[in-house]
Amino acid sequence: MGPMPKIQPELLTAAAFAPFGCVIESVASTAESMNSERFRRFDALARLDLDAGLDGIISIAECLEPSSLPYEIDLLERHPRGSQAFVPLSACRMIVVVAAAGETVSGDDLRAFVTDGQQGVQYHRGVWHMPLIAFDAGQRFLVVDADDSEHNCDEIHLAEPVLLETPPVWP
Questions:
Q1: Are 54 and 82 in contact (CB under 8 A)?
Q2: Fewer CB within 10 Å, N or C, the chain?
Q3: What pLDDT is stored for residue 149 in this prediction?
Q4: In angstroms, rounded to a whole number, what is the distance separating the alpha carbons of residues 76 and 40?
């Protein structure tokens, strides 16, 4: 058996990530003033996409066990009944690994993205993605997804693990 396949993260941009979901970031050109111009508001950065009958929920996830790179990816998940978003609550190093929606996925299908330290992501429903990891204990993420009262998470184990490498640019 040869060496483990590797994946190198690329910088997260809205255009590169579009097949998999939305980048959640505050871009000055999309800002509207509010509250007597004391605030800027960045509207509709992502839209929930949920099956009828499902409620959207907002949660907070906190890292108890930090990960390190290189990181071995052997498990992916998808949410067929609704989109899912993760937004860091403070600046952090964040990497997401995704593959297009479909019934199966392999290591060759994976793409990895590293954020600028402030961006969040929303996965389109059905997009395969690596479970959330963080590189610092205590790191918190706002999570927006479907109320999981019905099955909305499929998991798949890769036939051959893929090694997630340290990105060339790391915030």
A1: yes
A2: N
A3: 61
A4: 37
Mean pLDDT of 114-139: 96
- Identify whether the C-beta of residue 25 lies closer than 8 Å to the C-beta of residue 17: no
- Residue linked to tokens 């890769």: 158
Each residue's pLDDT tens digit, 70-81: 999 999 999 999
Which pLDDT tens digit goes with each residue over 18-28? 999 999 998 76
Q: Cα–Cα–Cα angle for 53, 56, 62, nearest 5°? A: 145
Q: Average per-residue pLDDT in the chain?
A: 93
Q: Write down the pTM of the prediction.
A: 0.92
Q: Which residues in 113-151 are b (16+ Cβ under 10 Å) and which e?
A: bbbeeebbbbbbbbbbbbebbbbeeebebebbbbeeeee
SS3 at position 137? coil
Q: How far apart are CA 156 and CA 144, in angstroms?
A: 22
User: What is the topology classification, in CATH, of domain 6-164?
Assistant: Jelly Rolls (2.60.120)
Cα separation, 48 vs 84, whole angstroms = 8
SS3 171: coil
